[in-house]
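WARN no homologs supplied; continuing
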Amino acid sequence: MVRTVVLPKSITFAIMQKILVANRGEIALRVMRSAREMGIKTVAVYSDADRNALHVRYADEAVHIGDSPSSQSYLVGDKIIAACRKTGAEAIHPGYGFLSENAAFARQVREAGLILIGPSPEAMEIMGNKLSAKAAALKYNIPMVPGTEEAITDVSEAKLRAVEVGFPILIKAAAGGGGKGMRIVDNAADFEEQMQLAVSEAISAFGDGSVFIERYVSSPRHIEIQVLGDTHGNILHLFERDCSVQRRHQKVIEEAPSSVLTPEIREQMGKCAVDVARSVNYTGAGTVEFIMDEQLNFYFLEMNTRLQVEHPVTEFISGVDLVKEQIRIARGEAISFKQEDLKIIGHAIELRVYAEDPDNNFLPDIGTLQTYITPKGPGVRVDDGFEQGMEIPIYYDPMIAKLVTYGKDRTEAIERMIRAIDEYHITGITTTLGFGKFVMQHEAFTSGNFDTHFVKKYFEPGVLQNDTEKEALIAAMVMEKLLGEQRLKVAEVADGEVSNWVKNRRSV
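OK structure emitted
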């Protein structure tokens, strides 16, 4: 059970001496490191596949919770609760993915007398469904993409509404995410077929066939705002992240701040994000996501009720450790700073290093990390959960690491990212490192003139192979020049005179 202490002025704080991290890999390690700095002990949980994982070795204690598939380990709430009972952990940090946005699990944690380091189950439920999230946001007049505000099941009715909204339109699963249950429809003739496909995919992926429609924003930027809320009614934002470089509707590269936002738009979006969080009395760290059109009009997309994968870029530009703030808020403490105390300093970029083959439609790759050497130096951060010789398991997300660079401005952050990618040596599997370098050097990215269709517009299979061949040719030419110079030096006589061979060679 959670122990509390009552201080003067009736402020109640939970005593949190041990945290169980209900996750794996880099995010588990990242949470544990902040907890250790706060003097809090940590408990790791692990499946068969993660028996020798770094997060298991780093934690103060570790509990085996099942077979390798996540459905038999990391997604089983009862096993997580039991591990808390066994070790005496008072709180659970869910990281991201797995049970992090599961309202039923959040309620289970609360009923067990434990603390979930995250929002309430009620906030998760509302924001976990795109339609109820839109309804909550509308209370504060948050800008919305034109479309329906409720689920549509009647195809004929939906088609009429689509004509009113105007094509192209987007059919989206209410319970969706990651691009599943989503269909772009360019004309009325294709609507019925695409709606049936979207409903079928939504049922298969989420067990919920509810869909709604929105006008399709053809060249959108994906902008998200980091928010923090405490139990004392304080809610603030820590500026934006631009997550527009994506593949399969999932992010690959993120940066903070965005290269296109003006101070005025930043302030407007920040206020909207805070209002969205306020609509559900949000506590902890969360992210309010928007899409932005070519005229810089922004519209509410959804809210993620957890720590985001890309949170390090926000930490760099704000100077705030988001995990420590999550823990403090969960203990009942008020946020120690005000909105006016925050300012953007510098620029940060994150590349998700996936075990994927960009030249093969970013399909996951598996194998052993035969070579694994991470970059170092000023402004470079690597959040990972692997070391040389380890295998990439087939059971989980293929992300190996998050490579983050920070600079005084966007140019320096990009230059550092290129340098860090060159220093990052991985063999045994194919990764997205080469793709990351391609993006960093592409004019569309360096100019800031890009959107979520970057991959479709500029990246084709074979591009990385061609770049590698060019680099090899240049290297060969440089080596030939160096060898030629070396031959000249060898041909020089010991007394400093130059041989006839060298004289003749130089005269050619």
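Residues 4-11, 498-508 have pLDDT under 50 and may be disordered.
OK
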